[in-house]
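G., the chain you wanted modeled:
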Amino acid sequence: MGLEEAINRANKAIENSAALTTKQRKNLKTSQFCGPGRSFPVNDCAHYTAALRLLNRSKFSDSTKAKIRACVNRKGKAMGCTKKSEKSADIDALINSDVFKTTRELVEQSLESKGLDFDDC
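Predicted structure as C-alpha cells:
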C-alpha cells in the first residue's frame, strides 16, 4: 500500500468514525451546529476535527467559511479539543524534556550492554 492510499484510508476511517445517524443528527441541538442549515455539527472532538478538515471542500463563500471556522474553533476550544499543530507542540515538548532524554539514554545504554538477549523476553 502506498502512502497516498494509506492517507486516503485514514481520512475515510476518520469520516466514518465521526458519522452521525439521521436520528442522532436530529437529536442534536441547533447550537451544536456551526454551518447554515444545520451543517457542520460540532458535538464532540471527532466532529470538531472533521469540520475543520472538510470545511474547505464546501461550496460556501469565503466569508461564510470564516464564520463557520470561527464557530468550530470556539466550540472545539470549549470542549477541550486540540488542533494537530497543538498536539505536535505537546509531542515536541515531551521529546525535548529531560525525562524523555534520560529515558532514551537508559534504553540506549541497555541496548548496548553485552549479555542482554531480548529474544528471551
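Residues 62-79 form the longest helix (18 residues).

Shout if anything looks off.
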